[in-house]
Amino acid sequence: MEETISLQELFTTLKKRIGLIIGLTILAVLIAGIVSYNFLTPIYETNTQILVNQEKTDAAQMLNQNIQTDLQLINTYSVIIKSPAILDQVSQQLDLGLSAEQLTNKITVSNAENSQVVNVAVQDPDPAIAVDIANTTAAVFQEEIQQLMKVDNVSILSPAVLKENPAPVAPNPMLNMAIAAVVGLMLGVGIAFLLEYLDTSIKNEQDIEDFLGVPLLGVISPIKEEDSSDSQTSTSTNRKAG
């Protein structure tokens, strides 16, 4: 019985403060939308692909060994691509004025499992600069790896291309607004229960029992003004009739 009463009180509180909850949720969504569309800088991403492969050979067994060697080298190549030995030259060639560490934050290197293709993704507020960084990084790496590791097994498979109307990858306004809606809803519910907890006014018979600590013996029903007027009219009529 106590659980039922608690649930009833819970839903009663939510129903009483529904305006506050909805208002905070809408406000949070509006703020997230305004910030996402007007204040956050859009970020664009472009990709270039590098193929790691040995020279062709007629022996199939030797070819398989070369592939396994290339796969083992890819992790090393991923580190070298983001090293100062490569990125310092990229920054100098493009006259970016950025350090290797700053460029590293813009570049992501990855490859699919058991794949000899290394994907270099670059993010930047300017899509043209992102394309330049990606292609220059691939070109510098292809040249420098011959000196660093004495190998010639790297070729550019797919250079980055500047699209006509590139779409930003961040921010995602709809996702931000959805998260804001959840946060606003939770905040509204929390404030609703806090206000209910802080409200110590007596509203019903149960509040009186809880406040005084004694059982309730009776309740005086309110007398409506209409009933009182009807009673006075009836008394006046009876007097006239008498």
From TrEMBL:
Segments forming domain Tyrosine-protein kinase G-rich: 142-194
Keyword terms of this UniProt record: Cell membrane, Membrane, Transmembrane, Transmembrane helix
Subcellular location: Cell membrane
A Pfam family it matches: Wzz
Recorded topology in the membrane: Multi-pass membrane protein
Transmembrane segments: 20-40, 174-195
Stored InterPro entries: Bact_polysacc_biosynth/exp, GNVR, LPS_length_determ_N
Polysaccharide chain length determinant N-terminal domain span: 3-94
Main subcellular localisation: membrane
Source domain of life: Bacteria
PANTHER family named in the record: FERRIC ENTEROBACTIN TRANSPORT PROTEIN FEPE, TYROSINE-PROTEIN KINASE
The family this protein is said to belong to: Belongs to the CpsC/CapA family.
Protein name, UniProt field: Wzz/FepE/Etk N-terminal domain-containing protein
